[in-house]
C-alpha cells in the first residue's frame, strides 16, 4: 500500500505542479493585460480561438509544435544526467544550414538520397554543437548552461556569415539566403492536412527518446549518473561517454528540427530560422518535467500559444510578442513552483519503512 501511495504522490506532483504554475501564470498574465486596458477574459478567449478554435487554428498549432518537440528533447535528454542545456536554438540553426547546403550541393540526385543526406547533415551539425557542450563539461568542467548559451550565439553568427557570404543566393537581395531547395526535396503535408511530416518525425523521436531513457540499460545508466555521478563512477559506469553520447543525441534532435524547418517551411536557410523555437523548447521541457512523452502535449500547448499571437494583434491591438510575455511568466512561475515540492504535504510521499520499524 505504501508503494502505491508513493506512486500516486509522484504522479500527483507531476500533474499538480505544472498545472498550478499554468493557472498562476494565467492570473498574472491577466493582470498584465488588464493594466494596459484590455479585458483578460477576451484575451483568453481569443487565445483559445487562435490556437484550437478551428481546424485552421489546429493546423497552425501543430505546425508550430513540430520543431518545439524536437528542441525540447535537446533539453529533456541531458536533464536525465542532471545537465541543464539551453542551446537548442543554436543546434536548430546549424542543422537547418547544414541541411540546406547539403540539399543544394546534391541537386539532381535521387530524392530519397538527398532527403536522407539532409536529415543526417542536420542531425550531425546539431550533435556536434551540443555534443561539444557535453565534451567541455566532461573534460574541462565547463558549465553546460553557459557554454550552450554562448555557442548558440556563435552558431547564429556562423549561419548569418554563411548565408550572407559563401552560400548566398545572388537572387536573395533584401533577405540573404541560401539557394532554394528543389521542390522535390521539400517535405510535403500530411494527407488531408496542412501540417507537414515534421510533426510525425517529432512524435516518433519523442517516443524513441522515452523508450531509450526508460526501457533500456543505457537509459538506466544515464539516470543513475544524473542521480549520483560519484556512485555511478564507483559502480564502473562510463560517465564521460554517457554524457557525451546523450548530449550528442539531444543536439541531433534539435538539428533535425532545423532540417524540418528548412525542408518543410522555408525552403532555404536564412535568418528566419532564428524564430525562438529553441528557447521555447527549454520551457516545454521544463513544463513537461523532462519526460519525452509529456513533451508532446506541452509542445502542442505552446504551439497554440504562439499561433494565437497574430489574432491578439489583429483583434485587440496587442503586440504579437504579448504571447512571449505569457511564456516568460510561465517560466518564472514554474521555476518558483519547484520550491513547493517537499514543503507541502501534498507533494511529499510517505516514507517506506522496514517491517521491523513498523512493528516497533
UniProtKB/TrEMBL annotation:
Question: Which superkingdom is the protein from?
Answer: Bacteria
Q: Which UniProt keywords apply?
A: Cell membrane, Membrane, Transmembrane, Transmembrane helix
What cellular component terms from Gene Ontology apply here? plasma membrane
Q: Where's it found, cell-wise?
A: Cell membrane
What GO molecular function annotation could you give as one example from this UniProt entry?
transmembrane transporter activity
Q: Does the keyword Cell membrane apply?
A: yes
Provide the protein name. ABC transporter permease
- Tell me where it mainly resides: membrane
Pfam families documented for this protein: BPD_transp_2
Report the membrane topology from the UniProt record.
Multi-pass membrane protein
Give the residue spans that cross the bilayer.
7-35, 55-74, 81-106, 112-133, 145-163, 197-221, 242-265, 271-288, 293-312, 318-336
Amino acid at each position: 500500500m505504501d508503494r502505491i501511495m508513493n506512486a500516486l504522490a509522484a504522479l500527483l506532483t507531476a500533474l499538480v505542479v505544472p498545472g498550478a504554475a499554468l493557472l498562476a501564470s494565467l492570473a498574472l498574465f491577466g493582470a498584465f493585460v488588464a493594466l494596459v486596458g484590455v479585458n483578460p477574459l477576451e484575451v483568453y478567449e481569443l487565445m483559445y480561438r487562435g490556437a484550437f478554435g478551428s481546424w485552421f487554428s489546429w493546423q497552425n498549432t501543430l505546425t508550430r509544435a513540430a520543431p518545439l518537440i524536437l528542441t525540447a528533447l535537446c533539453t529533456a535528454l541531458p536533464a536525465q544526467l542532471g545537465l541543464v542545456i539551453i542551446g537548442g536554438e543554436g543546434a536548430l540553426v546549424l542543422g537547418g544550414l547544414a541541411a540546406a547546403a547539403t540539399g543544394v550541393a546534391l541537386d539532381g540526385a535521387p530524392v530519397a538520397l538527398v532527403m536522407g543526406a539532409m536529415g543526417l547533415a542536420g542531425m550531425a551539425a546539431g550533435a556536434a554543437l551540443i555534443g561539444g557542450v557535453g565534451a567541455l563539461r566532461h573534460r574541462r568542467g565547463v558549465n553546460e548552461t553557459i557554454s550552450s548559451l554562448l555557442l548558440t550565439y556563435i552558431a547564429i553568427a556562423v549561419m548569418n556569415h554563411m548565408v550572407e557570404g559563401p552560400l548566398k543566393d545572388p537572387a536573395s537581395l533584401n533577405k540573404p539566403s541560401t539557394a532554394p531547395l528543389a521542390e522535390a526535396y521539400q517535405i510535403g503535408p500530411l494527407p488531408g492536412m496542412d501540417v507537414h511530416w515534421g510533426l510525425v518525425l517529432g512524435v516518433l523521436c519523442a517516443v524513441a527518446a522515452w523508450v531509450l531513457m526508460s526501457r533500456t540499460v543505457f537509459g538506466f545508466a544515464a539516470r543513475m549518473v544524473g542521480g549520483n555521478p560519484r556512485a555511478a563512477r564507483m559502480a564502473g559506469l562510463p560517465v564521460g561517454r554517457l554524457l557525451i553520447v546523450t548530449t550528442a543525441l539531444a543536439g541531433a534532435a534539435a538539428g533535425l528540427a532545423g532540417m524540418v524547418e528548412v525542408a518543410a517551411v522555408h525552403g532555404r536557410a536564412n535568418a528566419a530560422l532564428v524564430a525562438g523555437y529553441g528557447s521555447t523548447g527549454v520551457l516545454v521541457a521544463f513544463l513537461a518535467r523532462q519526460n519525452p512523452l509529456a513533451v508532446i502535449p506541452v509542445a502542442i500547448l505552446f504551439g497554440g500559444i504562439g499561433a494565437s499571437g497574430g489574432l491578439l494583434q489583429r483583434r485587440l491591438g496587442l503586440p504579437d510578442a504579448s504571447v512571449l510575455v505569457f511564456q516568460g511568466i510561465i517560466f518564472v512561475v514554474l521555476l518558483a513552483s519547484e520550491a513547493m515540492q517537499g514543503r507541502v504535504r501534498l507533494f511529499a510521499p510517505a516514507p517506506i519503512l522496514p517491517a521491523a520499524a513498523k512493528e516497533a
